[in-house]
Amino acid sequence: MLKILKRILLGLLVVIGLLIALLVGVVVVDGLMGGGRLEAVTNTTISSANGPEIRAFVARPSTVGPHPTVIMIHEFWGLTADITGKAEALAQEGYLVVSPDLFRGSTAAWVPRAIWQVISTPQEQIIADLDAVYEWLSIQPDVDPARIAIMGFCFGGGASLRYSLHNNELAATVILYGSPVTEPAQLKSLPGPVLGIFGGADASIPIETVNAFEAGLTEAGVPNQISVYEGQPHAFVRGMEAIRQGGPQAEAWNEVLTFLDDTLKESPPSFRRTDPSNARIGWDWGYWIRLAYEHTVGGAAHGH
Question: Helices in the chain by DSSP H: which ranges?
Fold first, then answer.
């Protein structure tokens, strides 16, 4: 009996070792295949006092500024054409948009590397890079520094919220299915109104968490608009070509446009706070585990 148990244990260890080796191999191969991805979707470099230059995509309106401005943060895949396409669409609405590469040169096509990019990028680095982007924007002649918002998708949604807790100069925050913060004591540091968009069938963000986020914002006195699109999985707002076909993703995109019009095209914005948080609020690691499931066998995988 003991020999049988030893063989079973040895077999399990071998299987676990092979799975780990496979995951490491996928991360490495995906990285090797990613050469040239960023060059295809960036057109600007931004200097940073705390690290290397930040590559970014900037979309400008055809009209004369200064313009209301949006920092748009990518998903856990890294900066992609889906994000730059949305940036260009916002520019056509009169916004200057900058989409920085927050993974410092890394992109992913497969989920294991996408998760690796998140867990291997320190939050302090993300905050420092976004500080550099914000400082660069604030001195651009075609930017109105009093009307800068931040928005993001998936990883970018969570990063947008956490950066808003750090920077009390932002005018508004838009979170599309990002990992939320629910504590009112932390949320009270948000400097402007919040729009949150979530999918009702998103296994990575339970509806209870969305409700707690909305309740926390309300208790903290932060103007908020939280929308749950029933039956929609994680990452249901896809590229502009898909958005233009209509349906829930088009409704969500139009909600973003209306919110930005209401909060950024006023001068000055009607709600501002001046008490930023110096705390670094960590990721919900359970969210990233659920997200990996959602992007491999869940609803989000079916939409890719």
Answer: 2-33, 81-92, 111-119, 123-138, 155-166, 184-187, 207-219, 240-243, 248-264, 285-296, 299-302
Give the tokens for residue 93.
């609405």
The closest alpha carbon to 107, from 45, 21, 41, belongs to 41
pTM above 0.70, yes or no: yes
Q: Per residue in 237-258, pLDDT tens?
A: 999 999 999 999 999 999 999 9
What CATH code is assigned to 29-302? Answer: 3.40.50.1820
Hey, which residues does 175 pair with through a beta bridge? 152, 196
Token pair listed for 119:
């867990």
Q: How sure is the predictor about 128, in pLDDT bands with cuts at 50, 70 and 90?
A: very high
Enzyme catalytic residues: 154, 202, 234
DSSP assigned state of 63: S
Total Cβ atoms within 10 A of residue 181: 24
